[in-house]
Specification:
Helices cover about 40% and strands about 20% of the residues. With about 210 residues, it is an alpha/beta fold. The radius of gyration is 18 Å and the shape is globular.
Length: about 210
């Protein structure tokens, strides 16, 4: 089966660290899907070229064809992956505008992975105080691990803490898409199983003590 992953990148510069993180996350998701015997199709929505269309839509209520296609990409996807740069301790205005033009029910139940980039790790809490509440309000199903990357993180190797977070978040997203493969997908990049994978239910422990 082929799962479609919509990637929304709100980077403003070219090249963009936001797009770089989005690409690494989407590649990890595709790798995890392949490990589960599934295929992944990534469709990227870059918000920078849609800035004028988004402003016009907020004023007029009508999207142009390019924006309409971008919205359809997100709405029709099996999963959503979003990355925004941090501006003034929150997501960017461009990022918020895109999700403002979506129908309020467009993301209900959609598996979602959130990410953010900034110049310093001091902005990492933006994931929990801004992005997660936004997607919870939209009733998306946000994976537990959010991924933040500061400028210095991009110089790390594949064994870095950032790479580990990317791998874990990708596994959590794919677990939502392919729940039958959850046990295998919870294996870390080092090949070790999750030690809490096979926990004996508490009720069973109680019965054993009777």
């Amino acid at each position: 089966m082929t799962f479609t992953v919509a990637v929304v990148s709100a980077g403003l510069s070219q090249p963009s660290s936001t797009r770089l993180l989005a690409d690494r996350l989407s590649a990890a998701v595709v790798d995890r899907l392949r490990s589960a015997g599934q295929d992944g199709l990534v469709e990227v929505v870059e918000l920078r070229p849609l800035a004028h269309a988004l402003a016009d839509n907020l004023v007029t209520g009508f999207p142009n064809p390019e924006l309409e296609a971008a919205v359809s990409t997100v709405v029709d996807a099996d999963a959503l992956l979003t990355v925004t740069p941090v501006f003034t301790a929150s997501y960017s205005g461009l990022f918020k505008m895109f999700f403002d033009v979506l129908d309020k029910d467009a993301l209900v139940g959609k598996p979602t992975l959130i990410g953010a980039t900034a110049g310093t790790a001091r902005h990492s809490l933006v994931l929990e105080h801004a992005l997660r509440p936004l997607f919870s309000y939209l009733r998306a199903v946000v994976v537990p691990t959010a991924v933040f990357a500061a400028t210095e993180d991009f110089g790390d190797t594949t064994a870095s803490p950032l790479a580990a977070r990317i791998d874990r978040a990708a596994g959590e997203l794919v677990d939502l898409l392919v729940p039958r493969a959850g046990g295998a997908l919870r294996r870390t990049s080092s090949g070790k199983s999750d030690p809490f994978e096979d926990v004996v239910p508490f009720e069973e422990l109680l019965r054993g003590g009777q």
